[in-house]
Amino acid sequence: MYLNYFGLQTEPFSIAPDPTFLYMSERHQEALAHLSYGLQGSGGFILLTGEVGTGKTTVSRALLDQLPEETRTAFILNPMLNETELLATLCDEFGIRYAKRNITNKRLTDKLSEFLLKANAEGEQCVVLIDEAQHLRPQVLEQLRLLTNLETNQNKLLRVILIGQPELQDLLRRRELRQLAQRITARYHLLPLQPSDTERYINYRLQVAGAQRALFDSAAIKRVHEASGGIPRRLNLLCDRALLAAYNDQVQTVGKAQINTAAREIGEAEATTARRFSPLAMAASIVVALCLGVALAAWQFLPAQENSSPTGQQSQDSQRVVDTANETGIRELLRAWQLPQPPTEQAICDWVAEYQLACVQTRLRFDRIVALNLPALLQLTDGSWQFVGDLQSRPADSWTGEFLALWPLPPGYQLEDASTYQKWLAQQLQRYRQSADDGLAQLAQALQQEHGLPVTTQLDALTLAWLASHNTTLGPRLAEAR
């Protein structure tokens, strides 16, 4: 209805996964790098999780587009299968012929083994992609693990990509699946878009659709990010309704008023849908939501060279267990990063690694904490935490001088191949180089002296947090919280 009015050639905000409109934010690119590396490694499983609408399908499509031509792929879009149905589906997807009558798991497994061995001999890689994998039964996951036991001295004959919602991580923490969890060589959890990515996302899709000018003003973009929470699918719904509202209002540019109209319409539609559920189903959904947790991240820091670990002597405090997740300050910090409630049995600084984040906890002057430009917690003498979320915040009189903040891990930081991280690190430290002979200690010292950080001559957690927070758009900023 509004295409001619705005000079568009096609709908810019359709929720269909059209590759023409593929926009890869920094988080999507980081996820793609992790998954691509996992396919090159020696493990059998790769894991991609995220809330509904965060772009998991976008990343998986981009990953499949990068696969070499000699890759054989199988897609399982309906995970509600038993073991026999899974094996039969894999045979169907790979084009393996088998007798439909009197099929058994052994016969299907033998067929698959024969096919995988032949494909490997011909230089082909076989990949299985399972969407909505949180619905897989534990017995089916175990059957998949047994299939990945097929290997040569150098390669796995089958790689499995599991894509699902956060509940998938809970499923993989079950004791009977611990062997499978240990075989996950790459994992990534997609968080929603940040405000800067939301603006680029909207403008990119409009440009692809044929827009010759900006159709959303800055106030509209800010409001649509708030209303959508940075979820791409919800962004599409809101922007589409907002364009229609602008057409109805006969205005040339979408403003905050049109976004509010779209948000009300979508909210009313969602409320109508919610009322269709029975009270029992709604109660069950609430119980499930309250039980969500996040999987324990088994990972280690990957320093580019000696002393570049963020866990140096100065910042050993960043490894402390923060066991006060029920306090208001902690909740506000997690909300600023759009993180769910953490599991009670796990230290927050360990848990956030699953979200490509790290903790820094140490003492620092308040003006230097503000200059770090990250939401932070100030520890008070009674052990509680005061949240600092904007530039106007001031510490309480009972502040101990200690603070805690989360910072985004640099690109490639969690990959075993540290080349991506090393390249990023070299770029960030280049401006501090005074001579060609400067080593890491000299560069770290120059950075720390320039920005008033404790001089340790090491790339400790605080120094890396400073670099990451000032050289990446990932994560919230104090300036954006006003």
TrEMBL record:
Pfam families named among the record's database cross-references: AAA_22
InterPro entries linked to this entry: AAA+_ATPase, AAA_22, ExeA_AAA_ATPase_DNA-bind, P-loop_NTPase
Ranges where the AAA+ ATPase domain occurs: 42-196
GO MF annotations in UniProt: ATP hydrolysis activity
Record's protein name: General secretion pathway protein
The species this protein was found in: Pseudidiomarina aquimaris
